[in-house]
Amino acid sequence: MAYKIKLRVTTLLVIQLLFLVSIASAQDKTSDIQDRSKDMFQEMNTGELTLRFVNALTGEYVPGASVLINGEEKFSDYEGKVLFKPSIENGQVPVVFEKEGFITARFDIELMVGTIFQNRISVSPDLQPGSIRIVLDWSDSPRDLDAHLIKEGGYHISYRNKKSSDDGKAKLDRDDRNGNGPETITVKQVDQGDIYTYKVLNYSDRRNENSMALANASRATIRIYGDNQLLGTYRINDERFGTEWTVFQIKNGRIQPVDTVE
To answer: Which residues pair with 244 in a beta bridge?
Structure first.
């Protein structure tokens, strides 16, 4: 049974690889796709898995970072990449990312039959005290997910609304319309008495309210940075219809999960 599952996963990787190559030849999105293709070849040839670390503000790879995986220290190369051989087939693997000028992040990556299906992780440069940074990563499809931050009675930050608030306290740092992300919003000051709502919109399928691409295909992941640490991580769950994911609210300065799709 384990062999059959592993074979299915390998077959899925090959299908993904062929799909990525076809997209790369048809669209101006070659860099991310070529890197993902290289990572899949690496896995199929050597059994080593790849993690890539990306600057949440610029989308550029982060070299020279110390990355602790299962207690073993590695350093990211010029492509923001570290390689490791998994010690388990299924489950969570603890990772610690450290680099001067960046927030130290502790998180788990999920292995399924010895494979990582989303291996790009956006990490945050240092923040001023009292600030938070919200980072959206996703897969190659849908191509265009939009991050929205709404302050009740105040501003609405997104690519298609305002890219920065009138008071200068909130800003869309980076927009991504070609898949993967990061799409990043930074709030310089969270007002304790106000309510903030963070949503992700599947703009690519915005006219199809019955689409399941956001829940089933995107593997959308939200990371919230603040107080010199990774405050929380949210991942969308499968098998839900809709194009709008309300991820969390901030009330009285506290992050409260919502996790609804409609």
So the answer is: 201
